[in-house]
Specification:
193 residues
Length: 193
């Protein structure tokens, strides 16, 4: 199973999900399952996925169950990147916003990474495909790597373990902020069957 976490807002899903769906064609032996945003009806997704035979929907509220069954994930930046890491799932972070918004934010906000995992660890633990880098070809290459490159998978597992340790110890300011998220996840991470 490959988890698709394309975000929670209609505009961002409309940009990122079509790329994720095209990637599914290159991995026909995997089931791609989309985590449904609570604010969007199933009909919105149905229109997008009808021509992709190996793509399914998880019902709203089933994201943690989906992650617990996933071998890899394609994730929109945000808290979902940290949640995915805490479930130990290798991931590719996908972000594409409007060109104007991206350039304004890039000038105003000076950060090295967009994913919580990389921000907290202060290194590139998970691959971030941002703006023009978010192409079907790049996602295919990165997904193939986190599915089949045993050295890369082992490094991700080690980094995720270090992330959990850092969060438990209180670490840096970023990790302290994220620790609140972890606490919440630990109280709500029981499978929602």
């Amino acid at each position: 199973v490959i988890a698709l976490l394309p975000g929670s807002r209609k505009q961002e899903i409309a940009v990122k999900l079509p790329i994720m769906l095209e990637v599914s064609k290159r991995f026909p032996h995997y089931r791609f399952i989309i985590a449904q945003a609570p604010s969007l009806p199933y009909a919105f997704y149905k229109e997008l996925i009808y021509s992709y035979p190996n793509v399914e929907m998880a019902t709203s509220g089933q994201t943690y169950t989906l992650l617990s069954q996933s071998k890899a994930a394609l994730v929109t930046s945000g808290t979902a990147t940290l949640e995915t890491a805490l479930f130990g799932v290798p991931q590719v972070v996908c972000y594409k916003g409007s060109t104007i918004s991206y350039h304004i934010a890039k000038r105003l906000i000076k950060i090295k990474y967009i994913s919580l995992v990389n921000l907290i660890m202060d290194k590139p633990v998970v691959k971030e495909l941002i703006q023009h880098e978010l192409t079907v070809e790049n996602v295919i290459a990165e997904l193939n790597d986190i599915l089949h490159n045993q050295q890369r998978i082992a490094q991700i597992e080690k980094d995720y373990a270090d992330l959990k340790t850092l969060l438990q110890q209180g670490g840096n300011a970023s990790s302290r902020a994220a620790q609140e998220i972890v606490g919440f996840l630990q109280t709500t991470s029981a499978p929602v069957a």
